[in-house]
Amino acid sequence: MNKKAGPLAAYINYLSNERNYSENTVKSYSRDILQFLEFTGQTTDITPDRAREYLEFLNKKKYDRTSVIHKIISARNFYKYLVRQKTAPSNPFVYLLTPKDDKKLPGVLTETETSALLNAPGKESFFTLRDSAIMELLYSSGIRVHEITSLDIRGVDFVNEEIKVLGKGSKERIVPVGGKALEVLKDYIRELRVFSAGEPLFINKNKGRLTPRAVEMMIRKYAIKAGIQKKVTPHTLRHSFATHLLNRGADLRSVQEMLGHANLSTTQIYTHLSINKLKSDYDRAHPHSKRGR
Fold first, then answer.
1. 273 Cβ contact partners less than 8 Å away, ≥ 6 residues apart
2. What gap in Å lies between CA 243 and CA 237, rounded to an integer?
3. Domain that includes residue 28, residue range
4. Of 80, 173, 209, 235, which residue is the catalytic one?
5. Does 93 reside within a domain?
6. Catalytic residue chosen out of the listed positions 52, 76, 168, 209
7. Is 213 a catalytic residue?
8. Known catalytic membership, residue 270
9. Which of 179, 234, 239, 273 ranks highest by number of CB atoms within 10 Å?
10. Cα-Cα-Cα-Cα dihedral of 18, 22, 28, 34, to 10°?
11. Pair (194, 60) in one structural domain
12. What is the tens place of the pLDDT at every residue in 70-98?
């Protein structure tokens, strides 16, 4: 690109080195902003009307709604940075209303399906014990798949019944773990110490650290074995963890902390999954919930 690439290059450097965004996230922002600059003729000096024209341009391209929202948010955040750096006088996207996203609620297992999945591995060998420990820990803690594969043995605190997790943006957090998961983990670590002297908590047959992809394939295998018709991934267990907690009365902010969400709004999607329970509670408790009363 020409000299207009300067602000974008500085912004990408900011996202990578100051915000610690992942490589994929940075690439996504970069693609969106490059497209925006192509639309503007490589200038960042635009009006709110021009920003609205960009939204119309994206809609005419027939991008799906989620993509349009992402591209507008990318441009808005880019200008937030430019305004802070005093390289743009104002943010032309600040009052631009983006189309509402079609909320795609994450897949969730029922408690019965979860039990069937967690019981599927059995404990006949070191690796089925490992698989059982992984799934119990994912469901018990709600951590992400890359967080569980990054765990070391020293990250498990049996005394305080918690684990130390390195999450997004290299932020460390402490997450409570339930008794069932800790019980399986104790059995697994006992066998692990015989099998390997290394630090990684979950290992493959070559004694190397297990990869997220391997965990995904493993869970898919056990979902089929358990007779579950839904698509099941490590993230499904994370979603199920949050939904089951909220269904049983957990505080939303507590769930936010356990999930490692920076914003409460991210966690609030799980309240949509609990709507049937809310309606049931309403019907049971409110004196005028039914017609004819």
1. 105, 106, 108, 239, 243, 246
2. 10
3. 5-84
4. 235
5. no
6. 168
7. no
8. yes
9. 234
10. 30
11. no
12. 999 999 999 999 999 999 999 999 887 66
Q: Give this prediction's pTM.
A: 0.59
Same-domain check for residues 190 and 79: no
Among candidate residues 116, 15, 97, the one with its CA nearest the CA of residue 56: 97
Mean pLDDT by 10 residues, the chain (293 residues): 65 91 91 95 93 91 86 93 93 77 68 95 90 95 92 94 82 87 95 91 94 96 94 91 82 76 63 54 62 51
Q: Which two tokens stand for residue 30?
A: 């970069």
Closest by CA to 189, choosing from 139, 111, 134, is 134
Q: Give catalytic status of residue 261 as yes or no.
A: yes
CATH code for the domain in which residue 19 is found: 1.10.150
Residue for token digits 């990869």?
Answer: 211
Active site residue 14: no
pLDDT tens-digit series, residues 112-169? 999 999 999 987 899 999 999 999 999 999 898 999 999 999 999 999 999 998 877 6
Q: Which amino acid is at 127?
A: F
CA distance 201 to 190: 11
Q: What is residue 95's DSSP assignment? A: T
77 vs 24: CA distance, rounded Å: 17
Check residue 16 and give left, alpha or beta (phi > 0: left; psi -120 to 50: alpha). Answer: alpha
Count of domains forming the chain: 2
**Residues 238 and 139 grouped into a single domain:** yes
- Looking up tokens 């630090």 gives 199
For residue 232, the tally of other CB atoms under 10 A from its CB is: 23
CA-CA distance, 263 to 17, in Å (whole number)? 21
Catalytic position from the list 11, 79, 81, 238: 238
Domain match, 119 and 236 both = yes
